[in-house]
Design goal:
two-stranded antiparallel ribbon; mainly alpha; globular; 3-stranded antiparallel beta sheet
Length: about 290
């Protein structure tokens, strides 16, 4: 599919008509800070929000509302004739729509897919509204803290994966001739989210998606740093004393599963990431 890359100065029909068309039939992923922001706006606990309104341990919003004319279900947070019930808490995916965002050479780029601007299919009335630059639109959508959260969690995902690498490469597991670990890394990259979340288990899903952090909830960077420390401490407690090759294998697989599940919550492709990690591990002596 054709992809158009934009600059902050690109001018597009980005003034939203708030018709609600984009609240139907989407796959909206959530990182842990976004799940928290939703729960704050909903005035319930993160656990309650996760258990009622998300799937796969909290990484994806449920779309189970009324159907539109195309038969697509509405987001669980959409209220007919009103719109998003938690608009101030909406995640980055909603704030950016119809744009996507990718990081290349440590710089954010904004994109849209297809040969025509996506909104024009269902919201042609936006042509009658003022046009905005990408930068103006992002400021209007108050996207900045949510972009910061996304970038911090990409770093956390890598930090978690680094633990899996250490358990494989620095422990003697790879040197022993192990081939099972990378096979399962690849398998997890191809697994459906419901299967991977079951593999990880509730204990790790909970600390990944609903960490017990009660301060810094307004500051995504500080929140993510605290969360990173909690995850590293958890890994140290669980894996710091493992010695047998079988224990090292299980630990490396589990923690890589956590990294891949977080990657999916960030909108990344777990298969592409696991393929990359596997090639990196092979370049450092691991075998498959």
């Amino acid at each position: 599919m054709q992809t158009t890359t934009l600059s902050n100065e690109s001018i597009l029909p980005l003034t939203c008509s708030r018709s609600g068309s984009c609240c139907f039939g989407k796959a909206v992923m959530l990182n842990p800070w976004e799940l928290l922001r939703f729960s704050v706006e909903k005035k319930i606990t993160p656990r309650e929000f996760r258990d009622v309104y998300t799937e796969f341990g909290g990484i994806q919003l449920i779309f189970d509302g009324k159907s539109d004319k195309k038969g697509q279900k509405a987001c669980s947070q959409y209220v007919d004739n009103f719109g998003c019930s938690v608009h101030q808490g909406r995640p980055l995916a909603c704030r950016l729509y119809p744009l996507g965002r990718k990081i290349q050479f440590n710089k954010a780029q904004y994109i849209y897919e297809g040969s025509t601007f996506p909104c024009l299919t269902d919201c042609a009335e936006v042509l009658d509204l003022p046009k905005l630059s990408v930068g103006e639109y992002l400021r209007e959508q108050e996207a900045n803290p949510f972009e910061k959260a996304q970038d911090e969690y990409l770093l956390i995902m890598q930090n978690i994966a680094d633990i899996a690498f250490e358990l494989l490469l620095d422990s003697g597991l790879a040197a022993s001739g192990d081939t099972k670990t990378l096979v399962l890394w690849r398998e997890m990259g191809n697994e459906l989210p419901e299967i991977l979340s079951e593999r990880i288990g509730n204990e790790w899903i909970d600390i990944l998606m609903i960490p017990e952090i009660t301060n810094e909830i307004e500051n995504p960077v500080a929140f993510a740093h605290q969360h990173n420390n909690l995850l590293l401490l958890k890994a140290q407690e669980k894996f710091g004393n493992v010695e047998s090759l079988q224990e090292l294998h299980k630990a490396s697989v589990l923690i890589m599963g956590v990294a891949l599940h977080l990657a999916r919550s960030l909108g990344a492709n777990p298969k592409e990431i696991s393929d990359h990690f596997i090639e990196t591990a092979k370049n450092h002596g691991a075998k498959e």
